[in-house]
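A reminder from the course coordinator: this example appears on the midterm review sheet, so study it carefully.

Given structure:
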């Protein structure tokens, strides 16, 4: 055992003892508060009939205060228990300018101050902690609330403590992220995304701690950590702006429920309450006030069927075109001007002419149509009240009269009329993409939903959203935004949005680009880069086995190869992900492999359930954003993935892999 390890072991044992005593103290305190609360509740029950209203009100306040105190005590105890298992991950020795000696700065998930008021562990989000990510040995500085603090880093260590025991200590003049990443990625649990606080890179740290720009667009290559950055940025903002921002005021729009479950543990691990989280599909269902017959996944399956003369597919593709928005805007402007035919309204002794009502209607042009009628009704009643203050109709009655003068009664009626005018065939069933124009029309026609309580919005997989979806989001959210994605990972032919278009639409947002990829081995990323002819991605120098293309003549041979691989990988890899092009194919292979005795789980995107099964099978659309130690792509022959979109689909399959990648290809038409 070297001197560095022994030094850290001694320091940790001393701190561990102090934490143990603190735990006992907090546990006793929590027990007392529980007993006090229980005793008081019993008093309220025993003397319920004898307590007067004033005392009841006072007792209610006391009970609430007891519950708050109990919760605070419980949270403090929980925090100390977590610190005991994993107290810190780094130490820097920093000599402040003007001082003769350095100070040891230990950095962890949570801060810890002892009974003497000494800050023994700094929260990773604290200003002083930023130096660990931004500087090596030598001059360093950080921004404190009162200005810049400078000095010199004269020592730097990375320390891993697992379940209260030191695993390793690494000392270097540089931040040794490569070694730490090697250890982390080699033993990664892919059931859930984990925190990256001990391996945050300098360029990632700059984004996480950016407080100058209200909105950001983050274009990050596969494996660049962009989703982790987004979640850690949320945690940082909740810490930095704790007096003005709470978890209830932050919203994440994620691509699907499987992805939502995958990222669900990150914020709790960082000590923050979960934020509001919706899938993009659920959000647009709420906004449109409709539930489609065909979900996003079912719509994608329909597109992948590539059936000729499919009216539904034609409508879907039309909705995603920028020209669709131009046509829709022109149609809405037209009906705004031509669909309102007001009649003169008599209220008491006041007669309001058609011209006057139209003047009012135009004056409220910034408001939705139905909201205008409500405002006009209020104005007319206020004017009529001057002459006849009593016996006036209600505001709702006047509003109803105005509504009857408009040519459309509902949002859906307007949408169907627009499709008819655009030459798009009538339909019986809504599909996912119909939600976008319906939501857009609803914002034009009905009152805008109140989302003002949301102060920060994060959207992942931004490249998957159509122009009309982005326009709706821009209209309903006036808060700061973080838009995260990678335009080389667009996997459907309907996805035509570009980074340039997104930047033009959200011109207030600062654009940032990440080109370093940390997830996959050098060999896997080099293989993936060739698929899309990439010259931008910089893979980390972490070596592993070469990806393998396994050629099979028929499905029986494919099945035998896959079972052979799974039997081997089940013993070695912590997680295995099988990926097919479509969900119907995933279901078919799931049945085949189950019948062959393989224990695996099917992700169909409908529900996200926890499972201990390490082998998972799903479709390309559902697994976007996920990762696994070993990935097996099924039927990855190029003719099955035509064109640029096909290349990007294969690229996404390849870049889900951390350590091992297999492409199982079928080169014969004999399906057996």
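Designed residues:
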């Amino acid at each position: 055992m070297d001197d560095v390890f022994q030094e850290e072991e001694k320091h940790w044992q001393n701190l561990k003892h102090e934490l143990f005593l603190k735990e006992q103290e907090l546990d006793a305190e929590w027990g007392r508060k529980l007993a006090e609360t229980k005793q008081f509740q019993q008093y309220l029950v025993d003397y319920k009939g004898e307590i007067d209203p004033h005392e009841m009100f006072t007792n209610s306040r006391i009970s609430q205060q007891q519950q708050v105190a109990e919760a605070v005590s419980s949270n403090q105890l929980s925090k100390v228990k977590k610190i005991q298992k994993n107290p810190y991950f780094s130490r820097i020795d920093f000599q402040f300018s003007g001082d003769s000696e350095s100070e040891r700065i230990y950095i962890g998930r949570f801060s810890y101050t002892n009974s003497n008021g000494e800050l023994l562990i700094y929260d990773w989000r604290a200003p002083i902690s930023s130096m660990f990510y931004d500087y090596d040995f030598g001059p360093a500085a950080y921004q404190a609330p009162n200005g810049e603090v400078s000095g010199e880093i004269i020592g730097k260590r990375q320390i891993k403590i697992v379940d209260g025991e030191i695993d390793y200590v690494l000392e270097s003049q540089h931040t040794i992220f490569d070694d730490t990443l090697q250890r982390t990625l080699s033993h990664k649990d892919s059931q859930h995304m984990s925190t990256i606080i001990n391996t945050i890179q300098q360029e990632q740290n700059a984004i996480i701690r950016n407080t100058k720009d209200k909105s950001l667009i983050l274009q990050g290559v596969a494996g660049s950590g962009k989703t982790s950055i987004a979640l850690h940025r949320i945690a940082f903002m909740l810490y930095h702006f704790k007096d003005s921002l709470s978890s209830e005021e932050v919203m994440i729009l994620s691509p699907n429920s499987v992805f939502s479950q995958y990222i669900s543990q990150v914020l709790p691990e960082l000590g923050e309450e979960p934020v509001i989280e919706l899938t993009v599909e659920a959000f647009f269902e709420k906004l449109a006030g409709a539930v489609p017959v065909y979900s996003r996944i079912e719509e994608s399956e329909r597109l992948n069927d590539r059936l000729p003369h499919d009216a539904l597919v034609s409508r879907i593709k039309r909705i995603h075109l920028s020209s669709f928005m131009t046509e829709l805007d022109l149609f809405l402007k037209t009906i705004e001007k031509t669909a309102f035919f007001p009649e003169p309204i008599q209220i008491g002794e006041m007669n309001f002419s058609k011209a006057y009502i139209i003047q009012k209607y135009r004056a409220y042009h910034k408001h939705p149509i139905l909201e205008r009628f409500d405002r006009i009704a209020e104005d007319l009643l206020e004017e009529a009240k001057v002459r006849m203050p009593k016996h006036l109709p209600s505001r709702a009655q006047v509003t109803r009269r105005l509504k009857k003068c408009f040519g459309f009664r509902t949002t859906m009626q307007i949408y169907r009329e627009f499709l008819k005018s655009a030459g798009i065939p009538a339909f019986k069933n809504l599909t996912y993409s119909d939600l976008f124009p319906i939501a857009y029309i609803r914002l034009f026609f009905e009152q805008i939903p109140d989302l003002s309580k949301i102060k920060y919005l994060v959207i992942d997989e931004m490249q998957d959203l159509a122009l009309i979806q982005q326009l709706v989001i821009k209209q309903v959210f006036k808060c700061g935004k973080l838009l995260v994605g990678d335009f080389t990972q667009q996997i459907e032919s309907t996805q035509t949005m570009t980074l340039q278009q997104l930047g033009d639409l959200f011109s207030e947002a600062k654009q940032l680009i990440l080109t370093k990829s940390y997830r996959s081995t050098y060999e896997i990323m080099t293989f993936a880069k060739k698929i899309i002819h990439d010259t931008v991605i910089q893979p980390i120098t972490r070596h592993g086995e070469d990806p393998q293309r396994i050629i099979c003549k028929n499905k029986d041979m494919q099945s035998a190869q896959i079972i052979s691989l799974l039997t081997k990988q089940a013993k070695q890899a912590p997680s295995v992900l099988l990926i097919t092009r479509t969900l119907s194919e995933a279901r078919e292979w799931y049945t085949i492999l189950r019948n062959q005795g393989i224990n695996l789980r099917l992700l169909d995107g409908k529900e996200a359930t926890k499972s201990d099964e390490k082998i998972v099978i799903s479709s390309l659309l559902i697994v976007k954003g996920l990762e696994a130690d070993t990935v097996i792509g099924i039927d990855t022959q190029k003719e099955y993935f035509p064109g640029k979109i096909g290349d990007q689909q294969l690229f996404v399959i390849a870049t889900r892999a951390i350590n091992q990648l297999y492409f199982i290809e079928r080169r014969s038409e004999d399906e057996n």
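The domain at 537-666 is CATH 3.40.50.300 (Rossmann fold). The two ends are 61 Å apart (CA to CA).
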